[in-house]
Amino acid sequence: xxxxxxxxxxxxxxxxxxxxxxxxxxxxxxxxxxxxxxxxxxxxxxxxxxxxxxxxxxxxxxxxxxxxxxxxxxxxxxxxxxxxxxxxxxxxxxxxxxxxxxxxxxxxxxxxxxxxxxxxxxxxxxxxxxxxxxxxxxxxxxxxx
Length: 145
Known about the structure:
Layout: H1 9-24, H2 26-32, H3 40-49, H4 62-89, H5 94-118, H6 124-136
Helix pairs in contact: 1-4, 1-6, 2-3, 2-4, 5-6
């Protein structure tokens, strides 16, 4: 369990912003992958996530750059949504907001991890565990009033 001072509504509202930043921080990286001149951060990120770093991941295909555009957009939008939930919804419905964000993160984790394994990139599951732990933080548990 975590100490009680980290299980307050005030702290959870703050942690939602950490969750939002964790999610949307990948958005600009993948957006940059849409253009050859700025694709290196996205290429390196994918190379890292499909460990080991071997340079085999490229952004040469227009299809890869298009998927990078979609990924960047979805991640940026999802992160901004979580930020907005922390600002406008959490004060009115804190437990429901926590559950919505937790459900979204768990759904991402299951689909991303399963897809990583089935695509031959099982090493990404470890990175996903780290991102999940950071994004969820103390919100595994209900806040104490």
